[in-house]
Amino acid sequence: MATNPEIERRRTFAIVAHPDAGKTSLTEKFLLFGGQIQVAGAVKSNKIKKTATSDWMDIEKQRGISVTTSVMEFDYKDYKVNILDTPGHQDFAEDTYRTLTAVDSVIIVVDGAKGVETQTRKLMEVCRMRNTPVIIFVNKMDREAKDPFDLMDELEEELVIQVRPLTWPIESGPRFKGVYNLYEHNLNLFQPSKQVVTEKVEVDITTEELDNRIGHDLADKLRGELELIEGVYPEFNVDEYLKGEVAPVFFGSALNNFGVEELLNTFVEIAPSPRPVKAEERTVQPDEAKFTGFIFKITANIDPNHRSCIAFCKVCSGKFSRNVPYYHVRHDKTMRFSSPTQFMAQRKTTVDEAWAGDIIGLPDNGTFKIGDTLTEGEKLHFRGLPSFSPEMFKYIENADPMKQKQLAKGIDQLMDEGVAQLFVNQFNGRKIIGTVGQLQFEVIQYRLEHEYNAKCRWEPVSLYKACWIESDDPTELEAFKKRKYQYMAKDREGRDVFLADSGYVLQMAQMDFKHIKFHFTSEF
Ligand code: G4P
Known about the structure:
Blueprint: H1 5-8, E1 10-17, H2 23-33, H3 58-63, E2 71-76, E3 79-84, H4 93-99, E4 105-111, H5 118-129, E5 134-139, H6 148-159, E6 162-165, E7 167-170, E8 178-181, E9 186-189, E10 200-202, H7 208-214, H8 216-232, H9 238-242, E11 246-251, H10 260-270, E12 277-278, E13 283-284, E14 292-300, E15 309-317, E16 319-321, E17 326-328, E18 333-335, E19 341-343, E20 348-350, E21 353-355, E22 359-364, E23 373-375, E24 392-398, H11 404-416, E25 421-425, E26 431-435, H12 438-452, E27 456-460, E28 465-471, H13 474-483, E29 488-490, E30 496-500, H14 503-512, E31 516-519
Parallel strand pairs: 1-3, 1-4, 4-5, 5-11, 6-11
Antiparallel strand pairs: 2-3, 7-8, 8-9, 9-10, 12-13, 14-15, 14-23, 15-22, 16-21, 17-18, 17-23, 19-20, 24-26, 24-27, 25-26, 25-29, 28-30, 28-31, 29-30
The structure holds guanosine-5',3'-tetraphosphate.
Guanosine-5',3'-tetraphosphate binds next to helix 2.
């Protein structure tokens, strides 16, 4: 734990969810509590943002999809809360995964009626890879939801983590009465309202008062359920949560601002302050005196005529100061930043200093790549998240012979931003772009045209997975590469990648070449 109070009070986290589960609504309510906005409805949905600051690209406006990640920060009680917003569209899942490298904990929002959905599962996998502490918020309890015990089992099985309810719902949908707080032992009665925060009542559940409040039948049912919970789930242990072993669960309705205050209060209390970050050379402690940080995200600028970008830097240790020279490890160069920015809900401001845990935006003209490290002189390399095998692949071709150079530069820079992955087929030299979803191809095409004045054309290539390969047996590796020469490619780091065109081919390859390891992520 950090000993510097400035660092200790920071809570840097992301709210993640399958689209439509209620991430935007919950974020908005947090901002309401943080005093960043005054009325509900001020934050536009991630999908149809019209004026919000993270709406940086024309394409977002055109398509009504927020592509970029932004940061919102506010003070709450004695804490400084940094929320990292993530793209609302699942085609940009890779962006979300990358953002998760910069957070110290995560709140996962689950729709009470739908339970665990595809995207929730994948996000949890990424959290598990890094042992990120997770709190689960089961949302939309004002609608008919699944049985809470079934939901608990589902969360545990599907997300592969132990769960421990800290609040418990009394019915759902039209019969929803509220939640019982197992931590503070009080009852929070539900009144549907987007603005008002409902009052909590201290109720001794063994007394008649509970019956008076929610009716005899429901009171009896609740007593029975609470007894069962105490019997089934072990006492909540904060250390287990911090190790990423147990996820506390809250129930509520983000839209109605119900159950959100409990969540936020418990969150600031138990969520970790900035955690130590592993670099290749050593583990960096947040309260080390010297500044270190890494770039986890690069986004295009608001002004489409101006190609400069913003690189998001997570401060890992010490204090970052404006105009002080820092060491850019990959370039082996010192640089200073005269206008670093921090982000509020609706605006960004220049900052003079930032502490470990904070996110700062650095104006970038192609100096940064995702994963770049800044220090006060030490040669450190923070390790980002590995690239995952893309789901979709296309050949990218030049559609304007006069603009070959612009196209190459555009592709290069967009890949540096982490928009998609590039593989070069070793057999025919053709460039293959791999993405998570169709939309990324459209973003690339659009941005190449508008920012780099280059035109591209997509051509189909039927591939199943990209596998990074390695082996202790160089002869076998060579034999494999020779046999599969048409399907061998290099990624941008020059690593060998096998482009399997079907699951069957991959399976056969795994059987025939027993000493070769096929990895679906770029780090192993
Ligand atoms: P997302 O960012 O995770 O995609 O979810 P978002 O908050 O945008 O919520 C998705 C939809 O679910 C929205 O409805 C929102 O109003 C609704 N919603 C969120 N929380 C609750 C809740 O606690 N109860 C109920 N009943 N609904 C909830 P929409 O129709 O898509 O948009 P809007 O017209 O309401 O803005």
